[in-house]
Amino acid sequence: MFNRFLMTLTTALMASTAASAETITLRVLGQPSGSGLIAQQKEEPFFKALAEKTGLDIKVEYLPVDVAGIPDTDGLRILKSGLFDIVSIRGPQVSRDEPSVLGLDLVGLNTSFEAGRKHMDAFKGYVGGRLESQFDAKLLGVWPAGPQVIFCKPEIKGLADLSGLKVRVGDQSAANFVAKLGATGISMPFGEVQQSLSRGVVDCAITGPASANSGGWPEATTTVLPVALQLAVNGYAINLKSWEKFSPEQQEKLAAAIDELNSDIWSFSEELYEDAMRCNTGQTPCERGKPYALTEATVSEADLKTVAAAVGEVSLPVWAKQCNAVAPDCEETWKKTIGAELGL
Asked: For residues 131 and 129, what is the distance between their CA atoms, to the nearest angstrom?
């Protein structure tokens, strides 16, 4: 089914591409159109202006993953196929195909932007090597959507109240974490969450405050518990054959431009988090989102300890087993890099 879908979409894209022999066409598969302001105000404008910014003789065709009709879980397969030249990788979603990606952002690992920068920098070289060997792709950097917090339809006061509830999660690490709390982790595309909350298909859902605001989640929930579980790592990668169409000097210009985008998103993500938390809970100033009136549950010391302990007790052991199954040196490398940072 995937191969048939690939052939159909390839034919459609080839028919729509009319570039001269000298001009390099870069087909970019972006973040979902409804996922929030990072996609709308940073990613899409950047790629649409990439030719002008770099001075390269390129034509960029940017398409959000949901508009393309491609499951965001297929990002790495799409990249390897060459159907798109650059893919905006959604880390949690593609981790089923490449578990090492999840090692950048295990539950309990990145509870702040500062920690996230340190840990992702330490391990992204290994992830990049895996993408190159397994998916014929070059990693062009990583960035966070922002702290992933918990939105619930029933009122909750802390993590203990998740017991018995159905919680939408972004990846297996989060599913394992909520299972330890007595909840059931349910995976579903972002676009389906708001309606699922409204209908009671799920009781709670995990995402960043800005994405929740863009997706209208506060309309279907009552409470937000702002305990940061992860940073929701994303990134950019380019198909190696596409990369090799450029000269070394051109590659340097392209990589430098995307480095700048990654850096810009890191800063923007932090600004968005603070503004969206104010918007979602009816506080001011609310400059970038829609105002709502969610109750903000107080994060207890017990909740902070539960999240901090999750790395050693839940997320690392389960993830290491999955990652070692496809890459025997995965856990060992993680412990020598991120593990060393943590003093493990």
From this structure: 5
